[in-house]
Amino acid sequence: MAIKKQYLKSKPICKVTFSIEAEEAKKVSVVGSFNEWNAKSAPLKKLKNGTFKGTVDLDKDSSYEFKYLVDGEYINDTAADAYAWNDFANAENSVVNV
């Protein structure tokens, strides 16, 4: 798992690339507070090495809760900046700070 951040000089945006190793998975997406937890909003593309990867534009100077949705199962990112308890999900969510 990995999170890569690329800040744009021209806009207050950060391009955040999410990646997760899931060789056996058929469908992976990143869901979070930045996309209303919509699985169709940010699908990740499977690479030849079995890693799923995708980039999302996020507003700078903000924090977002997120999880990976791997074949219907929610998974936290071990490389997250932090974790936050979510009463609605009754579980911890990964947090990315940009």
TrEMBL record:
Domain Glycoside hydrolase family 13 N-terminal as annotated: residue spans: 15-84
UniProt keyword Cytoplasm, yes or no: no
Family matches, as InterPro entries: Glyco_hydro_13_N, Ig-like_fold, Ig_E-set
Name listed for the protein in its UniProt record: Glycoside hydrolase
An example Gene Ontology biological process: carbohydrate metabolic process
Pfam family, one: CBM_48
Keyword entries, A-Z: Hydrolase
Sample GO molecular function, one term: hydrolase activity, hydrolyzing O-glycosyl compounds
